[in-house]
Automatic annotation (TrEMBL):
UniProt region (Disordered), positions on chain: 220-270
GO cellular component, one term: nucleus
Boundaries of every GST C-terminal domain copy: 90-221
All copies of domain EF-1-gamma C-terminal, residue ranges: 262-419
GST N-terminal domain sequence ranges: 3-85
Keywords: Elongation factor, Protein biosynthesis
Protein name: Elongation factor 1-gamma
SUPFAM superfamilies found in the cross-reference section: eEF1-gamma domain, GST C-terminal domain-like, Thioredoxin-like
Organism annotation: Gigaspora rosea
PANTHER family: ELONGATION FACTOR 1-GAMMA (PTHR43986)
A GO term, aspect molecular function: translation elongation factor activity
Alphabetized InterPro entries for the sequence: EF-GSTs (IPR050802), EF1B_G_C (IPR001662), EF1B_G_C_sf (IPR036433), Glutathione-S-Trfase_C-like (IPR010987), Glutathione-S-Trfase_C_sf (IPR036282), Glutathione_S-Trfase (IPR040079), Glutathione_S-Trfase_N (IPR004045), GST_C (IPR004046)
Length: 419
């Protein structure tokens, strides 16, 4: 079946999930375009068609319709099938469905983003805003909890775009912060959520959905808290919790100030014969086999550097190859502080809907430094130190930086170099 249109977005965007799930229910195909978020959405050509840089954006197959706003796109996709049940059985139900689309947009997503984005390292943490958003979200969830006391689905007797919109808005909250303890107070909502995300159309887009056991919390990066200041604040916070309650904004303003860039501990390591900048230049300008590889082993200094095997922890959730590749790109962007101290190659192996991310990093020192561990998505990757003297490890490392043929017996699909 020919796609009814194309979506521009980034991988695993819950706003896009909403559209893709609606398409699944209607047995329609929507193409997910190859798209580099941050670059392609700023391209003047993109902006000729769309109102602004925000994604998801949708273009119909006949090129006649260009729209932003995930709710509108999902509504259009839902209405593209005459037999659709996603919009309710009559105008009154359609109005109810619309009210939940807007409820998700206005009463769930903004609170959820303020709560979660600092945890993901996307925005800065602000305690007053955090408290407001957790309270705001709880209020909205209580509304749903009461509605779902007597209902299986939000509108009518079957899944509609109302359920899809609200469930996808709650995808990240349930995955990251609405933990087992929290869910005890929201039993109807949790039952409903589990019911809908286990429907085949949801599963096809979301895969196996996991609800978090213990909530992730924002932990301030060490670099944001110069030691002296932290100590002083800890003492004054201990002394007067009351004062803190009365003046959260002042405290938070202080917390939000960017701290001076700390000098890296790695700068005080003994000098090394491996000059990483030189290696990166040599690797870029010469054939990898045999020239760059020979150069590397001739200059490698196992005391000043370490080699790490890196595997993505959630390979089973990966979908299109280009999406996996974008994930690697995002991780590399967030490793900016490590650029001076690390070189890496991460590749996508396999094919669409069956691929994995793996690779190697060469890192200054013998531990994984904070320049790497501070990256918001570091926890999504497993880093294992390897013995550079082991011939098997050596050869595998070489394969992963040469990108030729099969790696670990799997087909190379795409790759990115951190340099
Ligand atoms: N109301 C819009 C919001 C879209 C939105 O905020 N998209 C974010 C990513 S999830 C974005 O594109 N941000 C980029 C920017 O603000 O320039 C919708 O529901 O589609």
């Amino acid at each position: 079946m020919a796609p009814i249109g194309k979506i521009y977005s980034y991988p695993n965007n819950p706003r896009t999930f909403k559209i893709l799930i609606a398409a699944e229910y209607n047995n329609l195909e929507v193409e997910v375009a190859e798209f580099e978020f941050g670059k392609d959405n700023k391209d003047p050509k993109f902006l000729e068609n769309f109102h602004h840089e925000k994604v998801p954006a949708f273009e119909s197959a006949d090129g006649d319709l260009h729209i932003n706003e995930c709710g509108a796109i999902a509504y259009y996709v839902s209405s593209c099938s005459e037999k659709t049940q996603l919009l309710g059985k009559d105008q009154k139900e359609t109005a109810k469905v619309l009210s939940y689309i807007l409820f998700a947009e206005n009463e769930i997503i903004p609170h959820a983003n303020t709560w979660i984005n600092p945890i993901l390292g996307i925005t800065q943490y602000n305690k007053a805003a955090h408290n407001q958003s957790t309270e705001g979200l709880k209020k909205s969830l209580k509304v749903l909890e009461n509605i779902l006391l007597k209902k299986t689905y939000l509108v009518g007797e079957r899944v509609t775009l109302a359920d899809i919109s609200v469930a996808t808005a709650l995808y990240l909250p349930f995955k990251l912060v609405l933990d087992a303890k929290f869910r005890e107070g929201y039993k109807n909502l949790t039952r409903w959520y589990k019911t809908v995300v286990n429907q085949p159309a949801f599963k096809k887009v979301l895969g196996e959905v996991i609800l978090v056991d213990v909530a992730h919390e924002y932990t301030p990066p060490k670099k944001d808290k110069p030691k002296k200041e932290t100590k002083a604040r800890e003492v004054s916070e201990e002394k007067s919790d009351k004062k803190k309650e009365e003046a959260p904004d002042d405290l938070e303003e202080e917390e939000a100030k960017p701290a001076p860039k700390p000098k890296s501990k790695l700068d005080s390591l003994p000098p090394s014969k491996l000059n990483l900048e030189e290696w990166k230049r040599f690797y870029s300008n010469n054939n990898t086999r045999p020239d760059a590889i020979n150069w590397f082993w001739e200059h490698y200094d196992p005391e000043g550097y370490s080699i790490w095997r890196v595997d993505y922890k959630y390979n089973s959730e990966l979908k299109k190859v280009f999406m996996s590749s974008n994930l690697i790109g995002g991780f590399f962007n967030r490793l900016e502080r490590a650029r001076k101290y690390a070189f890496g190659s991460l590749v996508v192996l396999g094919e669409d809907n069956k691929n994995e991310i793996a690779g190697y990093f060469v890192i200054r020192g013998q531990e994984i430094p904070e320049e790497v561990t501070d990256a918001a998505d570091f926890e999504s990757y497993e880093f294992k130190k390897v013995d550079h003297a082991d011939p098997k490890e050596r050869s595998c490392f070489e394969d992963y930086i040469a990108w030729d043929g099969h790696l670990d017996g799997k087909t190379f699909a795409d790759g990115k170099i951190f340099k």
